[in-house]
Structures are given as C-alpha cells and as structure tokens.
Amino acid sequence: MAAPLLLSDLYIYPVKSLGGIRLTEATVEPRGLRHDRRWLIVNARNQFMTQRQTAAMAHLKVAPAYNGFLLSHQQRPELLPLYVPFEATPERTLFVTIWDDMVFAWRGKPACDAWLTEALGEECKLVYMSDMVRRDVEPEHNPEGQLVSFADGYPFLLIGQESLAELNARLAEPVAMDRFRPNLVFSGGEAFAEDGWADFQIGDTTFRAVRACGRCVLTTIDQATARKNPAGEPLRTLATYRTEGSKVMFGQNVTSGGRGTVRVGDALAVVSHKA
C-alpha cells in the first residue's frame, strides 16, 4: 500500500536569496506564505541581488526572533546579529527592479543597509514589499490575477522528498533540500509525481501546480559554505534527464486559491491532474 501524501516540511525565506526558517505551521496569504520573501536586498542601482551573482549571500543566516528575524554572518562573528522586523514602515521609499518588474518598496532602517554593506562588501539596501504593492504572477499562467512577493515568479514552490531522493541516488555526493529553496515539501508518492498535478489541497487549503520550476546556478551553491560545486552539480546531473527545452526542471511553481493555515503533518490530496 502506497504511503499517504503528507506535508513534511514548511519553509519561509524572509529575505530573498538568504537562508530560510523552518516552520511547523504557516499562514497562506495571496502572495505566498506569511512573511515569505517580503524583504529584498538591492545594490547601489536599486537592482535586486541574489546568490546567482553574489554567492557570499549564502554566508548570511536567518534565525527567528520576536516579530522578526536575526541576520548573522557565519564567517564573521565580529558582525553582531542584526534584528529585522517582519514588516517595515513607509518612512522612506524607492523603486527597485526585480527581473522585468519595477516595484515600489519601503526602505529598511539605515542600520540594516550599513550591516549588509559591510557583510557583502558592496553598497546594499534592504527594502520591503508592502501589501499596497501589486506584483502579478507571469500573465500567461495567471488567469486568476494571482500576486507574488519578491519571489522569482510564483507565490509557492512545491517539491516531493522522493524527487530529491531520486536525484541524490544519481549523485556522487547527495545534496540537501535547501539547494532548491522550497516552501512546501511533501512525503509519499513516487519521485516527480508532482509534475502531473494540477489542483491539490493541503489540509483545507487549495493550491494549483502551475508549471515546473526552471533551475539555475544557485542550486550548485553549498548553502553551508557558499562554495559553488566545480562540476556544476546537481544541475549537471539534473540536465541529463530533467531538461525541457532549454531549462532544467525541478519542483513545481504553485499558486493558491485563498487563505488558510497549513501545518506539518497535514494530509495532501490531489484533486486533479494536468491535461
């Protein structure tokens, strides 16, 4: 008898491209899980920064704190941890660029900018997306007008544990799930079963798997050391059997039909499959 589908892990990433926080429950909101990727680091030109270009961002760790989180640098203990609230205030504002979008954002405290500039060795600013901002999911996959935070393109990323296990069976050195930065991880089912899902529920909350997620060089960065794999793994191996067109696919981009609370251990039920 097949193992039941269960939500096995939940993650939020308060700052885009920095470390995640593992949760036991999370609130589903129109832009994704509450507090997920609402903060963004931008450079001197107000352009978004990620580990794709700045692998040293993997050295910055995120830990939960009261009504916010702590940033620390794992290689520089002299940099005292920085407290950042989950939400900012509209005292200072600017426009920032993320992919093809220009987004109105609220500035963090000057101390945050100074800390990140010192930590990353270049001028940085920390900015916040308020509920007043409208950033839409990719229009060709967004008939319902879904919103997204500072995530790349979709509110949620779903990956099955069996999919990672199948990949690791092909690798000389297994990789952790944090290489792929999911929000929703489930157990049960076969490897890559999620590729065929359309509508599904976690507990009482409805979701839709919109399309597979194209992966990039970020997956080759060890999140514990900030070092890129010299052989390009696991992307190189994934490319041998998970390539569609010019993209290497792993995980499903997901939207949600409403609000709710999801908890680790919740049952996952597939409602419909892709045509």
TrEMBL record:
| Record domain MOSC: where | 130-271
Give any Pfam family that matches.
MOSC
**Gene Ontology MF terms:** catalytic activity; molybdenum ion binding; pyridoxal phosphate binding
- Name this polypeptide is given: MOSC domain-containing protein
Q: Which organism is it from?
A: Hymenobacter perfusus
